[in-house]
Amino acid sequence: MSSTLGAKNGTWRNWGGNVTARPAREVAPASVEELAAAVRRAAEDGLTVKAVGTGHSFTSIAATDGVLIRPQLLTGIRGIDRDAMTVTVESGTPLKRLNMALAREGLSLTNMGDIMEQTVSGAVSTGTHGTGRESASIAAQIKGLELVTADGSVLTCSAKENPEVFAAARIGLGALGIVTAITFAVEPVFLLTAREEPMPLDRVLADFDQLWAENEHFEFYWFPHTGSTTTKRNNRSAGPERPVSPVKGWLEDELISNGVFQAANWVGRAVPATIPAIARISSKALSARTYTDIPYKVYTSPRRVRFVEMEYAVPRAAVTGALRELKAMIDRSGLRVSFPVEVRTAPADDITLSTASGRDSAYIAVHMFRGTPYQRYFTAAERILTAHEGRPHWGKIHTRDAEYLAGVYPRFGEFTALRNRLDPDRRFQNDYLRRVLGQ
Q: Residue 249 and residue 230: Cα distance in Å, rounded?
């Protein structure tokens, strides 16, 4: 599921297939020293530098025509500190490998997003998150960071050491330096009971505050052209472990959620008029189920159907109103939307450019099957979400610029001032950062 680089013409492509780049050269450093040397050499050659993980961002945040840094050799756990309850991991480590390694050690992250293919640094740099009443994004679980800055020096930061860098670099967009190691808070592995069940959209919206308050992790998927949702509640459990059986798991997570869904999307792409009928079937395809397992097996699921996505964080109090507007827009627009709309929440955090920075947030994510025109749908959705002071996910499609973002992020100027100090020559600049952070 990673991004690809065609050796013949040196073109890099992201997972969603909507971003390509042609770097001048590619480097896969095997150590922090080699990475620092690559940054210094780029400066001598007058080239910009970008690190890229698995290419799971739908924006061009990692694209470059300069030096492309591949972190696949910077992987593995550097150390586990059981007194401090932290793990330090190399930046190129895939979340999947981190989760499995932690589980073997009887440890777990507190919360995570719904896929685990990304590298740890790619995930945190773009603000990847799951859903949680009290527990926030993956970046909010960071206790320390190591990064190579524009002059090739290695900077470490934490709440005590370089705290102003720590406040910003946990979600640094690749603008402050190249992250080489991350120290995460961990806890003893625990069990979660997941309860998945269909629920009418009207009821979810009417009871949203209660569903949020009563569950540690609540999320739902609404199927456009229907009044149906699939809800998911994850709560800590004393056990016993009752995982999804392999056969049922294959049937529901692979065949229905990926295989049949893929086929349905092919039909919908070819004949858009069939989409509302397909949506009605899709919304009823998954039956209710309850299972208990270790966190990463509950939080994450395979995503093999390729799509493009836009996601906005709105103040939590605004979510039901925004969704009603989104539904009304789809119903009157003549749009045909085959992918469900995903809704999650996060508590306020203290990270400078986190989508939940300083405010309790809810996330509304819209998707389109890869290869179908998405602009009209995303533009109309974006108009609704920005009217609620929405903040776009840094790794997902949006059209916002620095002027808009400065208005919805009270600490925006703090981030850009730090960037001026750490990267005055814009060694880590690209077109995306030019748009979202300004010159």
A: 17
Burial class (CB in 10 A: 0-12, 13-18, 19+), 286: middle
* DSSP collapsed to 3 states, 137-204: CCHHHEEEEEEECCCCCEEEEECCCCHHHHHHHCCCCCCCCEEEEEEEECEECCEEEEEEEEEEHHHH
The DSSP call for residue 114 is S
Between CA 347 and CA 316 the distance in angstroms is 9
Q: Cα(114)–Cα(98) distance, rounded to whole angstroms? A: 15
For residue 275, the surrounding DSSP H or E stretch is helix 275-285
- Tokens for 196, please give them: 């998945």
What does the angle CA 222 – CA 228 – CA 234 come to, to the nearest 5 degrees?
60
Q: What are phi and psi of 194, to 5 degrees?
A: -100, 130
Rounded Cα distance between 127 and 344, Å, is 14
Contacts of 223 (CB under 8 A, 6+ apart): 229, 279, 280, 282, 283, 340
Using one digit for the tens of pLDDT, what is the confidence trace for 27-46? 999 999 999 999 999 999 99
Among the listed residues 242, 100, 90, the one whose alpha carbon sits nearest the alpha carbon of residue 178: 90
Cα separation, 123 vs 2, in Å, equals: 13
pLDDT digits (tens, 9 = 90+) for 64-99: 999 999 999 999 999 999 999 999 999 999 999 999
Strands 67-69 and 49-51: parallel
Would you call 431 helix, strand, or coil by DSSP?
helix
Q: CB–CB of 108/184 below 8 Å?
A: no
